[in-house]
Amino acid sequence: MSVQAITAINESATRRRASVMAALVVLVVLLVLLSLGIGPVRLSPLTVIDALFGGGSDVQQVIVREIRLPRTILGFAIGAMLGLSGAALQGLLRNPLASPSLFGAPQSAAFGAVLVIALGLADVRSYALPVAAIAMAFASVFVLLTIAGRNAGLLILILAGLAISSLAGAATALVMNLSSNPFVVLEIAFWLLGSLEDRSFHHVMLALPFIVAGAMILLRQRNAFRALSLGEETAQSLGVDVGWLRLTVIIGVALGVGGAVAVSGTIGFIGLVAPHLMRPLIGHDPARLLVPSALTGAALLLAADIAVRIIPSTSDIKVGVLTSIIGVPFFLYLIMRERRALGGGAA
Amino acid sequence: MIETALLTAQDLSVTLGGRAVLINVSLSLSSRHLVVLVGPNGAGKTTLLRALAGLVPSGGAIRVGGDALSSLPLRERARRFAYLPQGHVVHWPLPARDIVALGRYPHGATDPARLTAGDTEAVLRAMQATDVVDFSERLVTELSGGERSRVALARVLAVEAPVILADEPTASLDPRHQIDVMKNLRAAADKSALVIVVTHDLGLAARFADTVLVLSEGRLVSQGKPAEALSEQVMADVFRISAYRAEYQREAVIVPWAGIR
Q1: ∠ CA A302-A109-A328 to the nearest 5 degrees?
Q2: Fewest beta carbons within 10 Å, which of A18, A103, A301, A341?
């Protein structure tokens, strides 16, 4: 037996992961071009590229660079952050049903933002909004992981997540209920549905710093997730500070999801779906799933945001509604697959 | 013991949930020894292993290789103690090789796809020692219980730590695999390590141990060579059993025989 016996297979697995990554990058680039080209005025990919770099007519430039580019950047960044958060939470909890939306993080972040608007503390364009959203997202994930304890099963996580998202939803409803200004209520309601419409570079500046910071925090921890595959105690014995890891993951998810929700409203289930789409292609290694899941999340949200512009309807369909309508049946399918674990082994 | 001790504990005490699990345990253990830790259920065996590795907070002083455990950063502790927990849990279906490569994590090899030549050799040595090279690319979830336990053992050997702590490594294995596991640990001890094994199998303890430690209700009540540490008196007082005792191929044979009222 030689060293080659254990390194050769490793190389073939690396090659396969690289080709999956390349395919994902191509897909995302195509979706970005499509997203820049589709709307009331349809532009071909070549026109889009031309306008992006200062060519084409003035109208085309305005459409691509000022109307559709911010929307596309947000679609990419928020989708990527949701996919990454889902993969990171699944890695941290060694649990395929973990995701920000099932833990009530976006719902809680939305409540934080709604509270700021309703109390008139700040207008919709200030940094108070993402800060409040991040604070509430942090609180929700922190409470959930505290309730779940060190080795929570699927059932406890899902029940606690359900309770937290219900509470955040109820609190948001209460704020809207008590708000006396009907215009504020209308604005909050539309924005809670989750949408990327009419977003400007101001929104990009509002969300992007937090999303980038959250993503970097999560990516830095990637190898610790692999050690966690052996359980928290063994990971600790290998030199992983598990308590610190939990805290940094909560902070990373809260920064990213809070920042995203502050400009897009709640967009659910991308974090749950993205890692599952990647496992058959990349394998189950939680460290290797992070970046592909982020790219898949970006592709999903970009595609959903293109779809709401194409689907004919009397009024605009919100992208958050679409992702939930696709995501919930997928969640039910996962529950069916995990029936054994959920039913305590009886199924 | 004449040689200087590798691992010492002075008045080690652990309280979990208000209950004293370990009470003033003091011990002094040297490298190149296989130490077997026995005791009835709830005696504190697992807690003692965890406390020695610094995985649970404890009172008292632990020194390893001349340094106070509390003064060592997490990474350095991980290089000195290789810990094999009960049950060999792996939460995701990863290839066996990647599991073994996690043994190099304390040495900075956090990514199994990017091992240095030295790390690769350590992984290979460990996989050869437990004979798992043939299924290095198979997913651990597809392996049999015996194969999985060998992979888990390879992961621990790959750390190449001066102290190996193994918690019931032979539980739920067939007799042949139990002997294989103990032989592997014996070989690691013969090479250089201090190996501490928790087991309920007094027969294996007698057969493979240099030193047996007997824990009862959180206290260290007996220690020494197997036949001495597991004397008739200790068997009666601690385990409440009588045992068949003999010698075979110059090793002690102890077979639990009957309960004592």
Answers
A1: 50
A2: A18
